[in-house]
Amino acid sequence: MKALIxxxxxxxxxxxxxxxxxxxxxxxxVARDEKKLKEISEDIKSVNVDxxxxxxxxxxxxxxxxxxxxxxxxxVNNAGFGLFGLFNETDLDKELNMIDVNIKAVHILTKLYLxxxxxxxxxxxxxxxxxxxxxxxxNLSTYYATKNYVCRLDEAIYQExxxxxxxxxxxxxxxxxxxxxxxxVAGGTFATKGVDAxxxxxxxxxxxxxxxxxxxxxxxxxxxxxxxxIAPRKFLLKYIxxxxxxxxxx
Length: 250
What we know:
The chain is an alpha/beta fold. Strands 3-2-1-4-5-6-7 form a 7-stranded parallel beta sheet, with helices on both faces. The chain has a single domain (2-249), classed as 3-Layer(aba) Sandwich (Rossmann fold), CATH 3.40.50. Helix 5 (141-163) links the parallel strand 5 and strand 6 (168-173). The protein contains 9 helices and 7 strands, in the order βαβαβαβαβαβααβαα. The mean pLDDT is 90. The protein is globular.
């Protein structure tokens, strides 16, 4: 088997790559940083590792990525970033770029590879969303909205595959805070300690192969997701506003 992982040079993407490599699955790592990709490809020796330099915010680059890497069994859409701040103050260009990376790239690669997987009647798609995908996010509004898009898209595709009795599987990975470069890019600091990316990767890969629709690592986050479904909407909005404000103040 071979897996293609966007955002594969760091964080959750790299952790998932290593977990798949431990299971003997060959890799195609996708990111913009060629130096990092080369170092990682040389470091992982248990399987064949190729790397592909690509800016996933660019549609033509995505199409080329797909055309150059069609022999894929597992797609992991991991590339993404956030941006802290009030919606009326955050930079529009950065937000539009976020939509390109967090939504458009996921949408395009999911569609292209899903068609191939359905024809072969096998394959796995793991889209890295977030616990933010269940909520609205004051002070991190666009990011939350993008992850809601990913979760709802995956759920719809999951049911379509189920109705056609396909052997193709799609999953949303929805972790809470994870120790990655997310905060550095987004311009904030976790108000609580993040989970280790390796722990998240192990749960992600296990859930993906089990065909889970939604994968929520750690018991605490499972409780959080459950609470978010029963708590009053206005209470949640106030709670999230205060929680994200603490991140920005730090």
